[in-house]
Design brief:
The protein is of the alpha+beta class. Helices cover 36% and strands 22% of the residues. α1 packs across α8, α5 packs antiparallel against α8 and α6 runs antiparallel to α7 (232-251). The chain crosses the membrane at residues 20-39.
């Protein structure tokens, strides 16, 4: 696991006290079943040896305490994922959502860069999932194809080639896991100034503020054709809104004083994720949570990789120059997202100016249909 710089003593004491309370909460669940609880949560976590698979020849790790995490949302339809809307139906798994999370040296700010799945990139040579057969490098392929052909290791390798940044950690969450996690934290609140009606994702929202359950939240982050121009860029803006809503919800739960809720959230989260080997334990995840605790929604700069329409294909995009280059260079230097990138971000289609016939409400009807 990448080394993380220590925070000032006073804050560190508070954080240690919080973590001790959290662990104590797990230990008292079910009487003397603390050992079982810890074993159960550890056993839930799936992992991939990214470092072992990729070996050398990668971008160097930071030496100043900053670090990067590649977060993927997988659209595999295996298991319970098959009951949920919008996933791959051909037996493959693709990275439907991709975010590079850069945590600064002081661990007080995070820059989150969403990479559109339709971005055309140069994919390096990888090993096929399952067989280990060599997959040759390719140019002008969709970003999410890397995960499809070579799994997490190929996704990390492609991201590192695209960004020039070392991905110190890897976290993947699947559809069912995302929905379960949202249910475990009691749902999330979102607001939209326009109605959303998307038959593909199964989401139907009136304009207004809504408390979404897990299935509805999943449909919200997958909505594409029911609002705005139907592009992946618009959907990414909805995903950014959801991330901040989830963080706000978790911050307000008071998990350390509610052992039952803490267990529910921990169990569902650990059953939902696949991580790199260094994060594949409860203690490692608690350590990462300790590091990230000072970062709230107000300390997140969430942007989409600057892109332009691909030459010859209006349905694909390519990184914009110089915007994309400037963005990755800023993160490599542990600087904030450049103002030029911030000022050119796509609009959130859920926050569009409503038409004369749209009437925002205090809590309009919300539904999500399973497909």
């Amino acid at each position: 696991m990448a080394a993380h710089r220590r925070t000032p003593l006073s804050r560190q004491v508070r954080l240690r006290r919080t973590i001790v309370c959290a662990v104590a909460g797990l230990l008292v669940i079910g009487g003397g079943a603390g050992g079982y609880a810890y074993w159960k949560l550890n056993g839930n976590i799936k992992s991939v040896d990214i470092n072992g698979q990729l070996g050398t020849g990668r971008p160097p790790a930071s030496t100043n305490g900053s670090f990067n995490v590649l977060v993927l949302g997988s659209d595999s339809r295996n298991g319970r994922n098959g009951d949920l809307a919008g996933g791959a139906t051909d037996g493959t798994a693709r990275s439907d959502t991709a975010m590079v999370v850069h945590v600064n040296q002081a661990h007080t700010q995070a820059e989150v860069v969403s990479i559109p799945r339709d971005t055309l990139v140069a994919r390096p040579a990888c090993s096929a999932v399952g067989t280990g057969k060599a997959v040759p490098a390719a140019k002008g392929v969709m970003f999410n194809s890397a995960y499809e052909v070579g799994g997490p290791a190929c996704a990390v390798k492609t991201t590192e080639q695209l960004t020039g940044l070392r991905m110190d950690h890897y976290v993947e969450i699947d559809f069912a896991g995302f929905a379960d996690f949202v249910n475990a934290i009691g749902g999330v609140t979102v607001a939209t100034t326009v109605a959303i009606d998307d038959r593909d994702s199964g989401l139907h929202l009136a304009a207004g503020t809504h408390q979404l359950n897990g299935d509805q939240a999943l449909a919200f982050v997958r909505t594409r054709h029911g609002v705005g121009d139907g592009s992946d860029l618009g959907r990414i803006e909805l995903q950014k809104q959801m991330v901040k809503s989830m963080l706000a919800q978790v911050k307000g739960l008071g998990l350390t004083s509610n052992p039952a809720r803490l267990w529910s959230v921990g169990d569902r989260l650990t059953r939902s994720i696949t991580t790199d080997s260094d994060l594949a334990s409860v203690s490692a995840l608690v350590g990462l949570a300790d590091t990230l605790k000072p970062i709230g929604p107000e300390n997140l700069a969430m942007v989409t990789l600057p892109v332009v329409t691909a030459p010859g294909d209006p349905n694909r995009v390519v990184p914009a120059v110089p915007g994309a280059t400037q963005l990755w260079q800023a993160l490599a230097a542990d600087r904030a997202v450049p103002e030029a990138v911030l000022s050119s971000q796509p609009a959130n289609p859920a926050e569009a100016t409503p038409s004369a016939t749209a009437r925002p409400t205090g809590g309009g009807a919300a539904s999500a249909t399973r497909r």
